Automatic annotation (TrEMBL):
InterPro entries: Inositol_monophosphatase-like. The keyword Nucleus does not apply. It comes from Myotis myotis (Greater mouse-eared bat). The lineage of its organism: Eukaryota, Metazoa, Chordata, Craniata, Vertebrata. One of its GO terms (molecular function) is metal ion binding. Belongs to the inositol monophosphatase superfamily. This is Inositol monophosphatase 2. GO terms for biological process: inositol metabolic process; signal transduction. Mg(2+) binds at E81. Keywords: Magnesium, Metal-binding. Its cofactor is Mg(2+). Signal peptide: none annotated.
Length: 108
């Protein structure tokens, strides 16, 4: 949620404004990738069980989010669900996964 205009830090740009703006930009870009993927054939894999799905789209969106966050915040470290499941080293700062994997895959 965007900070209230009554919050002095928000009106002055505050320390979270850059994070918020990046999050909005990335959400819009991720949405475009997901929307396009809804009309394409899906490549679906499982991780730990038949209910634990991962798609090529999940990985594309996660790669976009992490790579852009790393460009903007090079001193930060991130944990990402799909990369961690594939064996990537995890260090600090969780990043939420794109939600709706199971729901999107039920549409086809």
């Amino acid at each position: 949620m965007k900070p209230s205009l009554e919050d002095p830090a928000a009106s002055a740009g505050g320390p979270w404004e850059e994070c918020f703006e990046l999050a909005v930009q990335l959400a819009l870009r991720a949405g475009q990738i997901i929307r396009k993927a809804l009309s394409e054939e899906k490549q679906v894999s499982t991780k730990t069980s038949a209910a634990d799905l991962v798609t090529e789209t999940d990985q594309l969106v996660e790669d976009l989010i992490i790579s852009e966050m790393q460009k903007r915040f090079p001193s930060h470290r991130f944990i990402a669900e799909e990369a961690a499941a594939a064996g990537a080293k995890c260090v600090l700062t969780p990043s939420p996964p794109p939600h709706g994997t199971s729901e999107c895959n039920k549409s086809k």
